[in-house]
Design a protein that fits this description.
Length: 334
């Protein structure tokens, strides 16, 4: 055990942790993790976890029957061996860990000695397949490192195109003059193909999600788009702000996005950075961005408010519907 933090010693404290349960979702997550490991020069730590059901005695006359977990452990071991061979064949260093316990808790503990945690969006379920069932929502909220959730149907080679969206672009770093049919309720969403997209809230350049996204984009050699969303309609048309109020909201959002991009460029001068401000519901705008983005990055919470750029529960609203790998970065509460 490590005396500093009472955690088990690991081969690489900056490894990419991957939850494995043998499901297609976990193997899909592994494919993504391998590509990230090769891009960043990191190793992979495979984690398998399972629980043993307890036998509760109804009366003092019922004897305790010990449960043989050998079959379950053997199944988990086989899944890890198969996954390890796949990682080795890609030329990436790998280690594997099997733990008895709730999968989410095990992965949270493992994330304390990792640079990134990667899981699939859905697990196999059942007695031996607890790993990914609820982990994709529980792990991002409590992980000690950024977490990437990979959709079950994702493939890096799949063809993707923008879909219709109710979030309308207001301004961007290219100075685009956006014009729309006033009677149209939806438009074709922006195309973020080949880019990392990060959603920022009122924290702007202070957002941890922004800086993790910048690091990720630079490691991948991928342009970064910083997205902000304002919501000008809360209940219905009667809540629409005046033209002057809307202008102020757009100016504030633009200023924050400009400042965020400027800060990123100063720290990452070789990174291509741009921004886009939209009017709509934050979760819908981000899900539509995931239709074409290489990776989407969000924080665990927002600051909310009418003029906020993203709302507090956005990350949990986006994860179940995102169509690309989505990184969730912890934002500590004040």
């Amino acid at each position: 055990m490590s005396p500093e933090n009472n955690l088990p010693d690991v081969a690489d404290a900056q490894a990419i942790v991957v939850g494995i349960d043998g499901s297609d979702a976990s193997l899909n997550a592994l494919d993504f993790a391998v590509s990230e490991a090769k891009a960043t020069g990191r190793s992979i730590r495979l984690v398998g976890a399972y629980t043993i059901p307890s036998v509760a005695a109804a009366t003092i006359d019922v004897s305790y029957v010990p449960i043989d977990d050998s079959a379950v452990r053997a199944a988990v071991t086989e899944s890890l061996k198969s996954a390890a061979e796949k990682v080795k064949s890609a030329g990436v260093s790998v280690e594997a860990v099997i733990e008895i316990g709730d999968a989410a808790g095990v992965l949270v503990d493992e994330s304390a000695q990792a640079s990134l945690a990667v899981v699939g969006s859905r697990g196999r379920g059942g007695f031996a397949g607890r790993l990914l069932g609820t982990v994709s929502s529980a792990l991002p909220a409590h992980s000690h490192c950024p977490t990437i959730v990979v959709p079950v149907g994702w493939s890096k080679d799949q063809e993707r195109a923008p879909k219709q969206t109710s979030s309308f672009p207001l301004a961007d770093s290219a100075g685009t003059h956006f014009q729309f049919d006033e009677e149209s309720e939806t438009i074709e969403g922006p195309n973020f193909e080949g880019r990392v997209v990060v959603g920022v809230d009122a924290m702007g350049k202070e957002s941890p999600a922004l800086w993790k996204a910048a690091e990720l984009a630079e490691e991948r050699g991928t342009p970064l788009t910083v997205m902000g969303v304002i919501t000008t309609s809360i209940v219905g048309p009667e809540w629409l702000p005046s033209t002057e109020e809307l202008k102020k909201f757009v100016e504030r959002g633009t200023e924050k996005l400009e400042a965020a991009c400027k800060s990123v460029r100063e720290k990452h001068p070789n990174l291509e950075v741009g921004w886009m401000l939209l009017d709509g519901q934050p979760s819908e705008a981000l899900v539509r961005a995931s239709d074409t983005a290489d990776i989407l990055v969000v924080g665990t919470r927002g600051r909310g408010g009418f003029a906020g750029l993203l709302l507090g529960s956005t990350s949990q609203s986006v994860l179940p519907y995102s169509h690309c790998p989505t990184m969730v970065v912890s934002v500590k509460r004040d």
